[in-house]
Design brief:
365 residues; alpha+beta; NADH Oxidase; 2 domains; four-stranded antiparallel beta sheet; 16 helices; 45% helix; globular; binds flavin mononucleotide
Length: 365
């Protein structure tokens, strides 16, 4: 995804343009705002509505495809209902809403950890015959501040280079345990041959997506080319989170097609998969919304565990997003008819700027 797919303008292009037009890093204001969204959870002792709103804030710090934040939250007395916001669908990259429901699963997982920190046990249920809502009921319990909870405000999808070093077996075991769920498992690939095999499908998927004008147009709609744009919308893929220069849309949007080439992107993916410690593939036993939500919960636990260990991760989902390539990946991994849901690289590397979120009042119904 341009930013997501780490496209945009090369450093050379950045150097060719006037410094007045191009800011090669995110603005301090934007990062201050992003940090403020991630302030510590407050109000375990304050009124019930304040605590519930704080839980929603922590839920919204979850990842979502294209940072669409495709959710709304309904507060009830002893429950929070997370509902899909279908106005934020991405029909090209996600025609069956798979990623949308995975994103809701990620938010559910954050909500559960935050609730426990505030002294509430969360129980999530999904009504497969209903409108796609997840009801998270909350029961009083002893508050527990876990390392996964503490990682929520720190977690990010880190799209930079990693250090090329392996991680320890103990760390791999913790990641594996975190990523397992009910009918969903995570496969951790650390052998170079297996990683190269997945890389070939990432390259094939990325090439297919970049050759699809509808994919590129949809992606462009969700890119936030400048810090201003990112702050004003509070959503989308902010250029700086990928280490790309930021600039006004009128300049970046037409220039994108000059520099967003399959070769430069594929080269970058090859380098970044090769400097990762491994690739995680999340696989569900069956393919429907309940499993996609569970897959999101598993991924989010994996990401929080990784963050708690000082590890970074980033999605490389192209092979599961392109319908003709997904079964090829499944077959190469020996998955039979099971669906590979998500593909993620992990390792150690520097943090990148944080992405924005919409304020709590915008997602409350
Ligand atoms: C289901 C799902 C699919 C995603 N796919 C990709 C992807 O293929 N490539 C990528 O760079 N980021 C991907 N992302 C990451 C989002 O773009 C990211 O979560 C969002 O921009 C917010 O940034 P943050 O997670 O750092 O807060 C995906 C996230 C989710 C939940």
């Amino acid at each position: 995804m341009l930013l997501r797919r780490q496209v945009i303008l090369s450093a050379a292009a950045c150097g060719m343009l006037s410094p007045a037009l191009v800011a090669c890093s995110s603005s301090a204001d934007e990062q201050e705002a992003a940090q403020a969204l991630r302030r510590p959870l407050t109000g375990a002792d304050s009124d019930h509505t304040h605590v519930m709103r704080e839980l929603v804030r922590y839920a919204t710090l979850a990842p979502s495809s294209h940072n669409t934040q495709c959710w709304t939250f309904h507060l009830q007395d002893r429950a929070i209902v997370i509902a899909p916001d279908l106005s934020r669908r991405c029909p090209v990259v996600d025609p069956d809403d798979h990623h949308l429901y995975v994103s809701l699963g990620c938010a559910t997982e954050n909500l559960a950890h935050a609730a426990l920190a505030a002294g509430m046990q969360a129980n999530a249920s999904f009504d497969a015959g209903g409108k796609g809502d997840i009801t998270v009921s909350l029961e009083s319990t002893r508050a527990s501040v876990t390392p996964m909870f503490q990682a929520i405000a720190e977690r990010q999808c880190t799209r930079g280079d990693y250090d090329g070093q392996p991680i320890s077996n103990d760390e791999l075991r913790l990641l594996e345990r975190a990523g397992m769920g009910n009918g969903v498992r995570v496969m951790l690939l650390t052998e170079r041959a297996a990683m190269e095999k997945v890389l070939a499908y990432v390259v094939a998927g990325n090439t297919a997506q970049m050759d699809n004008p509808a994919f590129v147009a949809e992606l462009k709609e969700w890119i936030r080319f400048s810090a201003n744009e990112a702050q004003m919308t509070g959503d989308g893929l902010f250029a700086a989170t990928t280490g790309n220069p930021t600039m006004p849309r009128w300049l970046a949007s037409p220039a994108m097609s000059l520099f967003y080439t399959p070769k430069s992107e594929n080269d970058r993916y090859a380098r970044q998969i090769r400097n990762s410690a491994g690739i995680a593939v999340f696989v569900s036993e069956s393919s429907d919304k309940a499993y996609w939500i569970e897959s999101g919960r598993c991924y989010e636990r994996f990401a929080l565990q990784a963050t708690a260990l000082g590890l970074r991760n980033a999605f490389v989902n192209q092979p599961v997003e392109v319908g003709s390539i997904r079964p090829q990946l499944a077959s190469a991994l020996g998955l039979g008819s099971q669906r590979p849901d998500l593909v993620v690289r992990f390792g150690r590397g520097p943090k990148m700027p944080m992405s924005m979120r919409r304020p709590v009042q915008s997602v409350l119904v």
